[in-house]
Amino acid sequence: MVKRTLLIAVTITTGLVILMGYFINLPALVSVRKIFLNWAIILAAVALLIGLINLIVVHARKIINKEPGSHYSLVLLVSLMVTAVVGIVSGPTSKMSQWIFNNIQIPIETSLMALLAVVLISAAIRFTYRRPTSFSLIFIFTTLIIMLGTVSNPWLNVSWLSELRLWITRVPVVGGARGILFGVVLGTIATGLRVLMGADRPYED
Q1: CB atoms within 10 A of CB 165
Q2: CB 117 within 8 A of CB 131
Q3: Which residue stretches of the chain are H helix?
Q4: Could you tell me which of 40, 17, 39, 38 has the C-alpha nearest to residue 29?
Q5: How far apart, in whole angstroms, are the C-alpha atoms of residue 27 and residue 21?
Q6: What is the number of other CB atoms lying within 10 angstroms of the CB of residue 147?
Q7: In Å, what is the CA distance from 22 to each residue of 39, 41, 195?
Q8: What tens digit of pLDDT does each residue of 29-70 get?
Q9: d(CA 83, CA 96)
Q10: Cα(163)–Cα(148) distance, rounded to whole angstroms?
């Protein structure tokens, strides 16, 4: 019980000090806030390091036990080691690091995005075929407009198609993204307030 009360007190005190440090201009309070934030950055770096070690251990165990798909784990570990060595030895802005990024990372991400577009269109067509709704039709129409307006096609070189795609990406898409961000912000604030008030205690798990 004492340990639980101490954890709640430390959490609430830390959160209030950091929060007040942004609104109250006191040198001592600002200094303490910076110290707490530096501690948080260090803890985040340690957590990232632990996650990296866990990734290596899990995939190394798959390779040792010769589990199905272990060759993918081997490719992952080799790529991780090569990228880490190149980044540490020559730096992240060196020619070798930029070559890895431009010739390996970007093509892989581009292929995944292309695959995602195909999967979304296939899923939308199947959904429309089984249960057609106005929203699914709008989704398919918008997806086709975006794809046709993005890909250069000599047989379909229509100026208004590119302008319509540009309007869709700048107005409805940006509006939807801002709505999602507002939802994330409000959810984060609500979760933070619940932790500060002691209603949620994730540190006890």
Answers
A1: 17
A2: no
A3: 2-23, 27-65, 70-90, 95-100, 106-130, 134-150, 159-170, 172-196
A4: 17
A5: 9
A6: 13
A7: 17, 17, 18
A8: 888 888 888 988 999 999 999 999 999 999 999 998 888 888
A9: 9
A10: 11
Q: How far is C-alpha 158 from the chain's CA centre?
A: 35
Instruction: Give how far the C-alpha of residue 29 lies from the chain's centroid of Cα atoms, to the nearest Å.
Output: 32
Tokens of 151: 């890909």
| CB of 161 closer than 8 Å to CB of 149 | yes
Q: Concatenate the DSSP letters of all residues of 145-201 into one string.
A: HHHHHHS--TT---HHHHHHHHHHHHTHHHHHHHHHHHHHHHHHHHHHHHHHTTS--
- Lookup: tokens for 199: 């209603």
- Please give the structure tokens belonging to residue 112: 């995944």
Q: How far apart are CA 32 and CA 14, in angstroms?
A: 10
Tens-binned pLDDT, residue by residue, of the chain (205 aa) = 666 677 777 777 777 777 787 777 778 888 888 888 898 899 999 999 999 999 999 999 999 888 888 888 898 899 889 888 888 888 878 888 888 888 888 888 888 888 887 887 787 777 777 777 777 777 778 777 777 777 666 565 666 777 787 888 888 888 888 889 989 888 888 887 777 776 666 656 5
Give CA angle at 138 (132, 144), nearest 5°.
Answer: 110
